[in-house]
Design goal:
The protein is of the alpha/beta class. The protein is built from 6 helices and 13 strands. Helix 6 links the parallel strand 8 and strand 9. The N terminus and C terminus are likely disordered.
């Protein structure tokens, strides 16, 4: 339910970050994945002793993000959930369970969005994850039913040898449409809108073909799991808003330090919150819902994101078509 979360406002117009009260500093401190896991395990034990572990890891925040879009004719609302990493098991199992995921989806539905987006990583194939959890997650998302539909992209945990083909097949039979390196055009009350979705764009992704498939000046939103895509896509000014997950906002985000490590080469520039890519285009990186490696969040609460889109005031300059 919405009352279980905290609401944060993040207007566009400059670099914004869902900070949870913890300031950024420089480029942070880089550590290896092994060091991160070891340190997080220690923090988990200490925080659990005081009860802080459960609250930070389970208490969802509702983040409101206001973004003006070129070519939009009226206001539009989009809800986004990402990185659920759903595992089977009861309410007390330490990783993300169905109860928490249902709460996140209810928060999103309560906002009455015109469109729902899922940013990838349905589950993780450890500690009770796998194809069954992935299918269940897709079924739960199908229950939202916003007017413009529900769309998803793939995450790195979705495309594994054990469950990748099964996930693709279940999406194909679901009302949640999987966007994999393609654009769709949505006929909205705010005018036509181009929505793109990338296949998992992790390390080595260099194919910007989806960006070249549209040649219309209508507003464009790109759904991608990993913010690494900004390192490979050409001419980012041609996309109005990129929405991502993957990094969990660091999952551990320390005061005056930031995140010691994230799994994205886009770190530390793009790993949480709203950032300007160009004067008129933005990227938002959600902290997501679930956890990986250890069931712990510090300074990086799980979130449900609501984008309130509005028309960008006319500046007298026509937008270039591609």
């Amino acid at each position: 339910m919405q009352t279980a979360g905290r609401t944060e406002e993040h207007p566009a117009g400059g670099d914004q970050d869902a900070s949870d009260g913890f300031p950024e500093q420089g480029e942070g401190i880089r550590v290896s994945r092994r060091q991160f896991i070891r340190g997080a395990a220690v923090l988990s034990a200490l925080a659990a002793a005081g009860g802080g572990w459960w609250g930070m890891t389970r208490h969802l925040a509702l983040e409101r993000v206001a973004v003006p879009l070129r070519g939009l004719q009226a206001s539009l609302r989009i809800a986004m959930v990402t990185d659920t990493h759903l595992r089977s098991g009861g309410a007390l199992q330490p990783f993300t369970n169905e109860r928490m995921v249902s709460e996140a989806l209810s928060m999103a539905a309560d906002e009455q969005p015109d469109l729902f987006l899922f940013g990838g990583d349905l589950t993780s194939e450890t500690f009770g994850g796998g194809i069954g959890s992935a299918r269940r997650m897709i079924d739960l998302m199908a229950g939202i039913g916003p007017p413009l539909g529900s769309y998803a992209c793939l995450g790195n945990h979705d495309m594994t040898a054990q469950s990748g083909d099964g996930i693709l097949a279940h999406y194909a039979s679901s009302s949640v449409r999987l966007l994999k390196d393609e654009w769709v055009v949505l006929d909205t009350s705010a005018g036509p809108l181009s929505l793109g979705g990338l296949g998992y764009c992790g390390s080595g992704y260099e194919d910007a073909a989806p960006l070249r498939e549209t040649n219309s000046p209508r507003p464009r939103i790109l759904l991608a799991h990993d913010p690494t895509c900004v390192l490979y896509l050409d001419d980012l000014d041609r996309i109005d808003l990129i929405v991502c997950g993957h990094t969990h906002g660091g999952q551990v985000h320390l005061p005056f330090v930031g995140a010691p490590w994230t799994p994205s080469p886009a770190y530390p520039t793009y790993y949480r919150g709203l950032k300007a890519l160009t004067p008129r285009s933005y990227i938002y990186v959600s902290r997501g819902v679930g956890t990986v490696f250890v069931p712990l969040r510090v300074g990086s609460r799980p979130e449900v994101t609501v984008f309130d889109l509005s028309p960008l005031p006319e500046s007298g300059e026509e937008r270039e078509s591609i």
